[in-house]
Amino acid sequence: MLGGIFSFHTSWKVRQDTYRPKPLPLECTSLNFRGFQFALAMLFAIEEINNSTDLLPGISLGYKIYDSCASIARSVRVALALANGNEISSELSEEQCTRPAQVQAIIGEASSSPCMAIATVIGPFHIPMISHFATCACLSDKTKYPSFLRTVPSDYYQSRALAQLVKYFGWTWVGAIRTNDEYGNNGMAIFTETAQHLGICLEYSVAFFKTDPPDKVKKIIDIIKASTSKVIVTFLSPTDIIALVQQLFLHNLTGYQWVGTEAWISDSQTAAMDRHHILDGAIGMSIPKAHVSGMREFMLDVKPLNSSSNEMFPEFWETLFNCKFKQSKSSAGNQRECSGHEDLTGVQNSFTDVSLMPIFYNVYKGVYAVAHVLHNVLSFNKTCNNKVQLDPFTILQHIKNIKFKTKEGDYVYFNENGDLAAKYEIMNWQPTEHGIVDFVTIGLHDASLPADKQLNLLNKSLIWAKNSQQVPLSLCSEKCPPGTRKLLQKGKPVCCYDCLRCAEGEMSNMTDSNTCVQCHSEFWSNEKRDACVKKEADFLSYEEIMGALLTAASLFGTCTTAVVAFIFFRYRKTPIVRANNSELSFLLLFSLTLCFLCSLTFMGRPSEWSCKLRHTAFGITFVLSISCVLGKTIVVLLAFRATLPGRNVMKWFGPAQQRLTVVGFTVIQVIICILWLTISPPFPFKNFDKSKDKIILECALGSAVGFWAVLGYIGLLAMLCFILAFLARKLPDNFNEAKFITFSMLIFCAVWITFIPAYVSSPGKFSVAVEIFAILASSFGLLFCIFIPKCYIILLKPEKNTKKNMLGKGVQK
């Protein structure tokens, strides 16, 4: 014997009991054809099993079916009647039974709240209860509901699937409305938790019940009216969703995108009651479509319900065919009389609508699960005593491990929580030209797959709210474009933010980025801050104006030096050339030429060899130049001392000593440079600190001690030369070279003293330009101060280029 609990009515008459007489039985109202359809699906399965020769041969299944009237209290009462056999009125059974009857299992109820109450009551009796439509995740708790099973997926999976669906369409700012019972509260709680992990925010979450007082409904309407979200996620029963949309229509609140659960998303009866088409365009999760051969024809035959023993038959028949029996209490009026033999052909109502075939199939699978368990247990025992009731605990233990295949090819088995595998179809309400809603499957969701593959949208066109073909937007804040990051608004959910432009050197290349990424040291953010572009290499090149001018100055100095050398060579036998130590003069001109040319090594992209060459070449050539000048200064001083009576010092500083002096001073600088290059040589270096958007290519000194040793040695020689020349500046001579050497050394020292702060404070390539300028300025100072006056006399004042004139002032008057 199987028990069945279904809601043949959806409401009841409310009475004010005085608690003096015994309360009358509950008087049910609002006939519900869905309950009859569920009962017929159960009867179809039982009849199919009883006619089967393979399943339970020789054994017939009976049934006791009760109307719960959508009342939790009545559901508990009928469950106890099924458990202990006490009879109550308003039952639908094959025959009246006067003896106590204990059932082996109970099929039903359709809603979560009654199932929780029933499972709590019958749990201690270990009577299996298999629901076809109670989806609350709370029912998976086997500590509270040890005997509860279901052939419909748990809302734990549906809630997560809805959150993934909302995220897929980019809705991050949604409203939520739930039925104020275990189904709605538990389902919305799981959805809220999953939504938070996916970055979805709920602007509001309210509980609604069709029997709520007007003031509470008004508050809910005001919350929806004040909201900015355009998407409403619902965990509502069919009756609640219809009551809600009617209230929304009265307050002119339309145009919302509805996201629904399996409770109403594929229910044509709900669609038919939405007369104002407020729910058009809704999407949601639906139980996958199913087809059971023969079930539709069986349900539309109505013969199983046409029984005089069925107390609800007159009411059912009158509602189905819109007629009245003569004996009926409500036969008054002008309605036609019922004959009891009316033909269902041509009748269009919710009873003839079998759009909930997947749910009917769940009832079918539940009955077959019990039948397979009974078959296995009875086959194992090999005996069957019809007078002995089977142990419910044995049935429960076996049904948890049952696995069978339906005639439609579907495998049925329960997991450790008594749930089936969670698979859903994604449904879209698409209105047709005739005002009828077409339920279009637009995708699938399989919770058994990896998280990134569970949601699979088909390539089908969707209809959204207001019959739009564009996906509606529901955001608290506009999406932040690439190049910006989200800045949360104080005191608001994480979905409400401002868009802050990335700082220099940072970028974000995707929409709604939480952070800006720091560019690599060799890259810099572009103007839009949506990409990192390679920094421009900054160095003193020959192509730019400053580089070209310095190059021209260097070449001009080289050419000028060559011209002076040519003049000196051309007039090498003249007194002015011979009187000023022509050998040192030519060596000085050669070293100045090298000084002008070594400035070119400072230009162009730094390389390993150029970094080593530029400072060492500069140091050695300048020491060579200053050594020559120093030699000339010493010669001037000694030459004057040699003219004094009794002095013969020139023999100690002849040409050989002069050469040795120049070589000796130069070799010291060479040794310093060799040590520098050996210990820690200069090397090319990419400087990222001096400029934000450029890479400064420069030569790192390697050893700062080596660099300053080279400069210091040059400065030491320059100061020594300056002091000696200063001492010889007033020596009596018609052409005193010491004056010009003093002035040239003054220029040299001034240039290099000012070079130090200018070099340190100049950014990037300008520091290189400052160094080149110092080299050129000091080189031109030596060239012009020492050689140009002589060239002037050689070329323009040849009359002064005589030995007599050179010694004219040397004779004492």
What does this entry look like structurally?
The protein is an alpha/beta fold. It is built from 21 helices and 27 strands. It has an eight-stranded mixed beta sheet, with helices on both faces. α13 runs antiparallel to α15 (582-598), α15 (582-598) runs antiparallel to α20 and α16 packs parallel to α18. The protein is rod-shaped, with a radius of gyration of 52 Å. It starts with a strand and ends in a 7-residue tail after the last helix.
Q: What portion of residues is helical? A: 40-55%
Main sheet summary: 8 strands, mixed
What is the total tally of β strands? 27
* Level-1 CATH class name of the largest domain: Mainly Alpha
- Shape assignment: rod-shaped
Summarize the structure.
With 813 residues, this protein is an alpha/beta fold. It has 21 helices and 27 strands.
Q: What layout of secondary structure does this protein have?
A:
Blueprint: E1 2-6, E2 9-12, E3 28-31, H1 33-50, E4 63-67, H2 72-84, E5 91-93, E6 105-108, H3 112-122, E7 129-131, E8 148-150, H4 155-168, E9 173-179, H5 182-197, E10 201-208, H6 214-226, E11 231-235, H7 238-250, E12 257-260, H8 268-273, E13 283-286, H9 295-301, H10 313-321, H11 357-381, H12 392-400, E14 403-405, E15 411-413, E16 423-431, E17 437-446, E18 455-457, E19 484-488, E20 497-501, E21 506-507, E22 517-518, E23 523-525, E24 532-534, E25 536-538, H13 545-570, H14 575-578, H15 582-598, H16 608-642, H17 655-679, E26 683-687, E27 694-700, H18 704-727, H19 737-761, H20 765-796, H21 803-806
Helix pairs in contact: 1-11, 2-3, 4-5, 11-12, 13-15, 13-20, 15-16, 15-20, 16-17, 16-18, 17-18, 18-19, 19-20
